[in-house]
Amino acid sequence: MPIETREISVTGKKDCGIVDITEITSEEVRKSKIRTGTVTIFCIGSTGAITTMEFEPNLLKNVSETLNKLIPLDKDYHHHKTWGDYNGGSHLRAMLIGPSLTVPFVERNLTLGTWQQIVYINFDRIEKVRKIKLQIIGES
Questions:
Q1: With contact defined as beta carbons under 8 Å apart, do 102 and 38 qualify?
Q2: How far is CA 35 from the centre of its chain?
Q3: d(CA 51, CA 54)
Q4: Buried b (16+ CB within 10 A) or exposed e, 113-122
Q5: 75 and 90 Cβ atoms separated by less than 8 Å
Q6: What angle (nearest 5°) sits at the alpha carbon of residue 131, between those of residues 73 and 30?
Q7: Which residues of the chain have pLDDT under 70?
Q8: Are 90 and 47 in contact (CB under 8 A)?
Q9: How far is CA 82 from each of CA 39, 54, 88, 119, rounded to the nearest angstrom?
Q10: Angle (nearest 5°) at CA 17 between 70 and 58
Q11: Which of 7, 46, 55, 92 is placed for a possible disulfide with 20 were both Cys, Cβ 3.0 to 4.6 Å?
C-alpha cells in the first residue's frame, strides 16, 4: 500500500490559538498520488493538538473559555518546577485533545461534514511555529 509523508508549518497564537488547517491538508491530499485512503495529521510537540470542530468565532471563544475552566493556565503545576517555563497547563490541555487525527478520503476528497474543519491548537504560553506531519496512506 503506498504511503506519502508531507510536512506543513503552522503558526498558532499563544494560549489556545486555533488555526484552520483544512484547506492545506486537503490540498496535500489532492496533490498526492493516492486516490482513496486515510490521512493522519500529527502535531510534532507536546503543547499542541489536532482535532475537528466548526471553525467559527464564537465557538473559538467557547473552546478557550471551557479549557480555562477545566485546566486553568495560572495554576501552579508541578511541571513548572522541572523547567520553569510555566506551561504545565499547556501540556495537560494538549494531552486532553490529543496530537493527531485520522481522516478518510475518497477520490482525493476529505470526508468531512459540512461544518467540520481540521484545526491545530497551540496551547503553549508563547506563539509557536509548529511542524505538522501528514501521512497519506491508501490506493493509487
A1: yes
A2: 23
A3: 10
A4: eeeebbbbbb
A5: no
A6: 125
A7: none
A8: yes
A9: 35, 36, 10, 30
A10: 75
A11: 55
125 backbone dihedrals φ, ψ, rounded to 5°? -80, 0
Nearest to 86 by CA among 17, 14, 13: 14
Parallel, antiparallel or unpaired: strands 109-110 and 3-12: unpaired
pLDDT tens-digit series, residues 21-59? 999 999 999 999 999 999 999 999 999 999 999 999 999
In angstroms, the CA 71 to CA 102 distance is 26
CATH architecture, range 3-139: Sandwich (2.60)
List helix spans (H) across 4-140.
Answer: 22-31, 57-70, 79-83, 88-97
| Residue 30 CB neighbour total at 10 angstroms | 12
Q: Domains of the chain: which residue ranges?
A: 3-139
**Which one-letter amino acid corresponds to residue 56?**
E
